[in-house]
Amino acid sequence: MEDEKVIEIRGLKKSFNGKAVLEDVNLDVRKGENVVVLGKSGTGKSVTIKCIAGLLQPDGGSLKVFGEEVTELDEDALKALRCRMGFLFQGAALYDSMTVRENLEFPLKRVLQIKDKEEIRQRCEEVLEAVGLTDAIDKMPSDLSGGMRKRMGLARTLIVRPEIILYDEPTTGLDTITSREISELILEMQKKYKTSSVIITHDIPCAKLTADRVLIMNEGKYIAEGTYEELEKSEDEFIRSFFK
Amino acid sequence: MPNQMPFADKLSKIGEQAYFFRSFFRNIFKRGFEWEELFRQCYIIGFRSTGICALTGFILGIVLTIQSAPTLKDFGAESYIPGMVSVSIVREIGPVIIALICAGKVASSIGAELGSMNVTEQIDAMEVSGANPVQFLVVTRVLACIFMIPLLTIFADAMALIGGYLATALSVGMSAQLYFTKAVSILDYTDVFPAVIKTLFFGFAIGFVGCYKGFTSNKGTESVGLAANSAVVTASVWVIIIDAIVVQITNSVVYN
Ligand SMILES: Nc1ncnc2c1ncn2[C@@H]1O[C@H](COP(=O)(O)OP(=O)(O)OP(=O)(O)O)[C@@H](O)[C@H]1O
Ligand SMILES: [Mg+2]
């Protein structure tokens, strides 16, 4: 079942106050595949993945995750779906009334219902080591730097080991060395847990490293699709301009 | 386009509130009740407001006594001071003033906290992680208000009696024993019971309005301020409205 589609979007539409943001989005993600989405700021990349997570209600089109139409799920089914899905927010969205440790424990205790203290501690340490934040475990999010918050958000997403991860700009605001480490971490997650990912990024080295397939989005539509190498050598001036 | 259909707009707001209420109510009984967070909120909402409630109650007791003592003295009715202070504080002034103070202190901070969590997508993050933000954030805060506002009111009432005693002792000279015996013995369950019920509703209104305004704020930094502000205004208005309704009910049910 290598070709099983975990996300299947057809003709997705979404507008805000009469202004169309998504016009006709088509996107497939297969199991175990990393799909990178490139596009100018404000073209609706974040809106697309928020629709996938059921945070925004699309106006039209079909949106299937694990073969189920997201917009038709009831509360419990949507919750079950979300337990299998991870979402890294563009702004990290750390719970700022809790320490780093409590941030990490939150999904473990409430979503995975893990009671075993030892396992919780082990998972926290493992994931913090992966993002290089072991020392920050008892800090408050407000005491972290911008890049640390970003990595912390990533740690909180990865700790539940989801089957699908939606990354909204995982490396923005990080230095080149850390971005590379994060990109490698994304690859590692893919290998280790067979996760399928949608990665929104402006970071070309990250895209090059992680992408199995690249999509380019402009003005509410996906205008090109292919492997990194194909698109880099595209005939189209506009598409090539993303890779410079 | 916003103000083209103000009536439809109002209706959809009412619908939104009803939906929010239903989701609050259903989540009270859902599995995985957040006890720890409830206690934390009780501490934040209740304990951290004791200072201001004590001060307010104490001063109210003093002021009420100073205002009425000379008139009662003219009629030689000094012995009515304790009863008058305790009935007016317990029945009306204590609950309403404490509720209004908590509308300012508690509703605004809940509105601002949830509003900023909304703006920074923390509520969305909770939701997509598969956790239940209404259960964790709203149920705990509203219940903490329902438990704590009555306790704060009772505490402030007691402080008002102490303030009233000090002022009486200084102006007309009355023993503590006599003062408190008179103040407490005049209270009957028809004074205390409706007042406590009333404060439960005040607590609900304060917690619910704060949570609703924060939870449904727009995404933008200025909407955090707006959420806090409209939480205070709306909660205060609701306190007054509930007070008016409860007075009508107790007058027709209890005192007849
Ligand atoms: N909740 C919302 N209400 C109204 N408009 C919105 C909302 N969310 C997004 N938009 C609008 O949708 C458009 C696309 O936003 P989106 O966040 O998807 O951009 P993006 O492609 O992620 O850009 P960036 O790379 O800068 O993050 C923007 O014009 C934005 O103003
Ligand atoms: Mg974005």
The hetero compounds bound to this protein are: adenosine-5'-triphosphate, magnesium ion
Question: Helical stretch count of chain A?
Answer: 9
Give a short account of the largest sheet of chain A: 6 strands, mixed
Number of strands of chain A: 10
Enumerate how many helices of chain B there are, as a single number: 9
User: In oligomeric terms, what are we looking at?
Assistant: heterodimer
Domain count of chain A, please report it: 2
- What is the average per-residue confidence, as pLDDT of chain B, rounded to a whole number? 92
Helix content of chain B: over 70%
What is the C-alpha radius of gyration of chain A, as a whole number of Å?
18 Å
How much of the polypeptide of chain B forms β-strand, as a percent range? under 5%
Outline of chain A: globular
Hey, which two chains have the biggest interface?
A-B, 26 and 17 residues
**DSSP strand tally of chain B:** 0
Helix-strand string of chain A:
EEEHEEHEHHHEHEHEEHH
How helical, in percent, are the residues of chain A? 25-40%
Looking at the structure, what is the overall shape of chain B? elongated
Sheet with the most strands: spatial strand order of chain A? 6-7-8-3-9-10
* Architecture (CATH level 2) name of the largest domain in chain A: 3-Layer(aba) Sandwich
Low-confidence parts of chain B: none
Task: Describe the structure using short key phrases.
heterodimer; A: 244 residues; alpha/beta; Rossmann fold; 2 domains; six-stranded mixed sheet; 37% helix; B: 256 residues; mainly alpha; 84% helix; elongated; binds adenosine-5'-triphosphate; binds magnesium ion
Provide an overview of this structure.
The complex is a heterodimer of chains A (244) and B (256). Chain A is an alpha/beta fold and 244 residues long. Chain A folds into two domains: 1-25 and 43-72, no CATH class; 83-201, 3-Layer(aba) Sandwich (Rossmann fold), CATH 3.40.50. Chain A is built from nine helices and ten strands. In chain A, strands 6-7-8-3-9-10 form a six-stranded mixed β-sheet, with helices on both faces. A four-stranded antiparallel β-sheet of chain A has the order 2-1-4-5, covered by helices on one side. In chain B, α4 crosses α7 (176-185) and α6 crosses α7. The longest helix of chain B has 39 residues, at 81-119. The model of chain B has no long low-confidence stretch (mean pLDDT 92). Chains A and B meet through α2, β6 and α3 of A and α5 of B.
